[in-house]
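User: I need a structural model of Glyoxalase/bleomycin resistance protein/dioxygenase from Natrinema altunense for a docking pre-check later this week. Nothing fancy, just the predicted structure tokens so I can convert them on my end. Input:
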Amino acid sequence: MLAELGYEPKNEWRDGCSWSKGPMYLVLKRAPNSDHPFDRRTAGLNHIAFHAGSRDQVDKLTARVRERDDATVLYDEQHPYAGGYYALYCEGPDDIKVEIVGPE
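Assistant: Understood. Predicted structure tokens for Glyoxalase/bleomycin resistance protein/dioxygenase:
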């Protein structure tokens, strides 16, 4: 999904990886004490949001999520305006909610 949003992979190591897009640098790293499954409803990360370049890009990413067996479009009955604006809300196998926001 990050590649489709224009991010480029930079580094990868055993417990994580990094991506960049222009001056933005994003590091994704697994916590060292990951004995407990992730739950976005507890303290810590709730979700991560990205800006899409177009509504068409939101639609294409939505289609890709729907094709996967390990991901879900959230709030499907209200999609694509679940948050009051044009966006995709989805959740993957790690249960992290991802929001892809399209332009107004």
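Before docking, keep this in mind: The two ends are 21 Å apart (CA to CA).
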